[in-house]
Amino acid sequence: MGHHPAWCYQYCENKLYPNSHFCRDVPEAKICIFDMGQKKAKVDEFPLCGHMVLHEYEQLSSEALEPTCICANENMENNRGKDGFHICVQLQLFHVICITKMLSSARAEGLQTGMPGAFGKPQGTVARVHIGQVIISLHTKLQNKKHVIESLYRAKLQFLGYQKIHISKKWGLLNLMRTNLKT
Question: Which PANTHER family does this chain map to (predicted)?
């Protein structure tokens, strides 16, 4: 049986259901690499930092995060090369989504159990994202500002909901302003 579309799990309806010894047999997340590009770059190499920020309280699945990272990574590799940037996914996939499989064919009444045992089986993992939470951060050099905006915009199209792109005034991920460090 195939997966449901992403809009079926977009909104946070029930309480958090993490993976534990009560909830076994959860399939692995599709996204396995959370850092891409030049991971070992020093702080002074990439002063420009762009963020994709979510402006809705919703759930993002691992199936949606994977093409987002690939899209942003490919766009930056084509424009700046493999070592000219660093992409960091800042979400953790803790919440388990469950599905009750229902048959829709004729004579399916004898195969289904109905409401007894309707809790469902684990289908995948999602991240619950709050309003104003950063989804993806992209670090690069100052002259690559338009490439950062373009790659985050292309990555933004992979998600449901409303996201914004913010260019930080701070130096990379540090808490220091860029103008103070130049002087």
Answer: 60S RIBOSOMAL PROTEIN L10
